Amino acid sequence: MSSRSNSNSSSYGYTSRSSSSLSSSQSEVLYDTFETIENVDPGLHIIYNPHTTFTYNHTFGLKEVEETKQAVEKGFEWNNQILTVYIHNPSSNYKNVNPVDLWGMACSSLENTEHEIKEKDGTSDFVHTCSPAIDGDYFSFDKLNSTTNMIILKVSKKSEKEPPIMTAFMLCRDLHESTMRKMRTKERQRQYDYDGDFFAYKNVEPEPCLYVDGLCSKERGIGKLIMSLLDVIVSKSKKYEAIKLAALTYVVKYYYLQGYRFTNSPNESFKKNIKNNPELFKQVNEAAGNLPKLTKDQEHTNKQAIDFINVIQQYKLFNSNYDTRITDEQKKRFQRPTTIYDANTDKFVKNSPGYRKKRATESHDLGVDGWYMYKMLNTNKKRRAKTPPRKGRTKTKKKTPSVSKSKKGGARHKTRRSKKSRTYKTRNSKRK
What we know:
disordered C terminus; 2 domains; 432 residues
């Protein structure tokens, strides 16, 4: 495994130029990778987008969630060792690297990380860490800079003689409403008006969630560890209620075992929420739990996975790309047997509807962008009480003492009689 950089332009190998001042024609900024920082600390690094500090504030900046910072910095045990967690304040330097360049270097690590794989013929090739699940182009700098709030990197160092390498990463979006307002300002819209990823991000509906936009690892078990770190962040913070992600079909079972479920968004007014149908969620989650362990190349060949895809793809809430749902016309094609020519036997072979269904599912790209799942945490959080109205803005009625109806009526009757008697006496006195 190795990590390669595409720049060597300073003492630490990064370009010292603020990305916030770039126009669309200047967006090609080259940074060295995060792990090339001199004396970088091995462990887990949390780096925040310096263009918005809302994620940081919601997670660690407030006094009432200071315990989160303490819990995270205790570290996490992995392979009989404690991994230290380094939380990088978006307004502070790290190893003399300013926050803007630090963020740029973290983005560069995601974009340029590669590892060696061996082909069947014995040759070797370098591929992106997320290959084949996610293409390396998915991690372009402009996409990360305009839509991502937090990056978690795992930096390893095998020995003093070998340079540090980045072996795993996660990138997150903060879907909290206040954060998204900060990320979608008019200034940022003008800056990224050419970026298709940001254009789609502008239409994302807010939710009280952290969204896992990508998770890749070269080391077995480290991905689960990073997910547990995210559990701590969300469960301790008062701003978030869940973690959200888009699981590819072959890892749906993996996330199901970690507590992720198909369910409505914690945003009760979420447009895609499915109303009054708990039985649907029960059936879909049972199907997810019964899925077999799959590899990437089996999601469009395994019959159980194919059936799962064709059930779940019809629901907007679950389908991350609703444009790829099966239309009525395409459903008819599923039922027709298909005949193909077999060159080995020089015969036409009739295939079953099941074979046609597999071919059609793959050709229609069903499930290629994943299915939305939620891990609910802190659903019993206290909602913020409404601020009482200011004095003088509203009229308040004076409270009257509580009196029973009989007593109240008797009091009125006595008062009327006394008034009449006084009036009568007065008139009589005048007549005299």
